[in-house]
Structures are given as structure tokens and as C-alpha cells.
Design brief:
8 helices, 198 residues
Amino acid sequence: LLQQRMIEPLARLSEADYLGRDAPAESAEAPVSLTALQAKASYSAILFGPPGTAKTTVVAAIAKRLGWGFVTVDTSTFLRDGLSNVAARITAVFDRLLQLENCVVLFDEIEEFVLDRSNPALTMESRMLTTAMLTKLADLRGKRRVAFFVATNRLTALDAAVTRPGRFDMQLFVGTPNLPARMCRFEHKLSQLTPSIS
């Protein structure tokens, strides 16, 4: 799914000429317009699932496949100037992210900044941070210059506005490998340990 909806369209957009010429055709067909390709491409996704299921590894692999830069933004990035300066820090971080191009951005476990605002236990400051973060994520998505992911272990903790259709292009569960995938990995590792017989 990521290959079809994100990697292939974004790779073709990278090859396109932003002076107005169309993107290269997939086959012998006529070239595809940049507008059509941008509409088809997915720029954002939420990856959710239990800890240790390689969500970060998946995002890093996408950046490598595209040949793009890779940036990780986590809770400590927003807390660098102290708890009282989080809102200013969010603005500063997104100002820099909005300048990037051909880059994959991973927001890793930033649930604290997009918590469910309907939770009565949430403070006014937390609600305002969620609102600010939603606006900044929408701005980043609107630029269509980077691909970005939110990786989380707690999808249900996120505000409904984060997970509603249209906010992110995809929501993908990243679970543990199934039995055939585990067997394939096991056999591959065994083949590396066993000396080949000629």
C-alpha cells in the first residue's frame, strides 16, 4: 500500500520538472500532469501498533527508497526550551519543517501534543496545544513538499480531529509479522549461518 500510494507517486513527482512540464509516463502512455500526480500521491500517514513493530524502521526505509532526507521529531524536540515554551517551540519547529523539500518526517510518539480534547481531565493548555498542532500538521500537508508520518502506540489517545478522514492520507496498523513472514526471516537467517554445500 505504501509502495503504491506513496513511494511510486512521490518518486515520479521528484522526477517531474516543476517549471511546468509533465511527469514521466509509467509506461508508453502519455505523460501525467503534475496536478493529477499530486492529487494521486499520499503525503501523510499515521502508523499505529504495539511497541517494537518497526514503525520507525518502515519510515526510514521509505526515505531511503525515495532517496530523500529523513528527520525525526519527538517529544523532546518540542520540550527543548522547557515546558512553558512548548507553543513557541512548536511554531519554530514547523517553520523549519515547512522549508524542507524531498524529505520524510517522522513524528515519533508525540501523543501528548495531540491528545483527545474531549477528555475532561485535559488542561486548557493541552487543548490549545492540540489545536495548534493540528493547524501546523494541516499546513505541512498543504505544502506537498514532504512526506510525514505520526508513529504511535496509542491511537485511541489521539484527538478525533487527528484521525478523522482527510486529516491524514492513510492510517496503517503495523503489527508483528505473521507466521509465514517469521518463517521467511528465520530461513533467511539460517541460510546465512549454514555453510553452503557444493
